[in-house]
């Protein structure tokens, strides 16, 4: 309930461009976005001024909010990306404002699991690497070695085994959550068929322009030429990109399905047992 109220509060702040709501509940989120904006998107001059102000007055964020409010009040379209919003909250959003448009973005749960547990920033990798490092240091000390290797022959298999065990356990939580989201999404689709669009991450990776055409058609808007250019540039294969968490990928279609070969056979069978219903309801196929 607390998370749902938080989501509703954030949505309300974006809809109303409320300075008070944003100051009281959302300023930490806004503060953290500054670092992610750098080098990721091309900002407008107004957004540049807001970021510059924010960086110069980090301890007094309220001073900067009127600049963001100016952008908000003049914008024709307000968009909020809510990564952890559960779909049952969508019912409350549409009850409060039937003009809201919802985009439910899906990804194959096995792809989600692989992405979560192979990222260098994941807790699974950080914790396991720490364990391996400590074990190597202890072995070196026991053997009276002054220096010890940062890696040894068993490090990679050990991390892989640990990672896949974590995936199997995570699947038991993730996939039932996806099932509940799909059930709620279908209910919203029945009650508000013009208010929700379901897209797949894999479709964006394989054919971004067609998927964006669907999205803007749903919003009853024309696709800006700059948006098409950005997607063509961002999703083009064969070009090197920087940063593991960057939105610009060298082979987006390959990355979207990398989990098919990255997850071991035995682990895949365990994950499929937990995720069979989620996979089917989301429109994917079991391997």
At CATH level 2, the architecture of the largest domain is: 3-Layer(aba) Sandwich
CATH class label of the largest domain: Alpha Beta
Q: CATH homologous superfamily of the largest domain - what is it?
A: P-loop containing nucleotide triphosphate hydrolases
Mean pLDDT: 75
Annotation, overall tally of beta strands: 2
Bin the helical content.
55-70%
CATH topology of the largest domain: Rossmann fold
Largest sheet: 2 strands, parallel
Strand order of the largest sheet: 1-2
Topology pattern, helix = H, strand = E: HHHHHEHHHEHHHHHH
**Inertia-based shape:** globular
Task: Report the span from N to C terminus.
Answer: 36 Å
Low-pLDDT stretches are 24-41, 146-153
Taken as a percent bin, the fraction of beta residues is under 5%
Structural class: mainly alpha
Output the radius of gyration. 22 Å
Q: Describe it for me?
A:
By secondary structure, the protein is mainly alpha-helical. It folds into three domains: 75 residues, no CATH class; 161 residues, P-loop containing nucleotide triphosphate hydrolases (Rossmann fold, 3-Layer(aba) Sandwich); 41 residues, no CATH class. Helices cover 66% and strands 3% of the residues. The chain is built from 14 helices and two strands; from the N terminus they run αααααβαααβαααααα. Strands 1-2 form a two-stranded parallel ribbon. Helix 8 runs parallel beside helix 14. About 9% of the residues have low confidence.
């Amino acid at each position: 309930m607390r998370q749902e109220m938080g989501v509703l509060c954030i949505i309300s702040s974006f809809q109303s461009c409320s300075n008070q709501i944003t100051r009281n509940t959302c300023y930490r989120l806004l503060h953290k976005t500054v670092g992610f904006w750098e080098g990721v998107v091309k900002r407008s001059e107004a957004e540049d001024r807001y970021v510059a102000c924010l960086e110069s007055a980090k301890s007094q964020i309220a001073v900067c909010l009127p600049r963001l409010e100016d952008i908000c009040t003049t914008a024709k379209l307000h968009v909020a990306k809510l990564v952890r919003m559960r779909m049952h909250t969508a019912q409350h959003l549409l009850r409060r404002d039937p003009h809201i448009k919802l985009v439910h973005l899906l990804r194959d749960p096995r792809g989600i699991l692989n992405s979560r547990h192979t990222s260098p920033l994941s807790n699974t990798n950080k914790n396991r690497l720490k364990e391996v490092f400590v074990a190597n240091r202890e072995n070196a000390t026991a053997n009276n070695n002054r220096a010890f290797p940062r890696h040894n022959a068993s490090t990679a298999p050990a991390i892989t085994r640990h990672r896949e065990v974590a995936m199997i356990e995570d699947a038991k939580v993730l996939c039932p959550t996806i099932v509940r989201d799909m059930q709620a999404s279908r209910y919203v689709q029945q009650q508000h068929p013009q208010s929700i669009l379901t897209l797949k991450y894999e479709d964006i990776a394989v054919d971004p322009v067609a998927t964006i055409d669907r999205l803007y058609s749903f919003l009853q808007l024309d696709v800006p030429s700059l948006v098409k250019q950005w997607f063509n540039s961002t999703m083009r294969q064969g070009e090197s990109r920087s940063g593991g968490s960057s939105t610009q990928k060298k082979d987006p279609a390959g990355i979207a399905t990398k989990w098919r070969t990255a997850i071991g056979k035995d682990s895949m069978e365990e994950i499929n047992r937990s995720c069979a219903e989620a996979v089917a309801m989301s429109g994917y196929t079991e391997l």
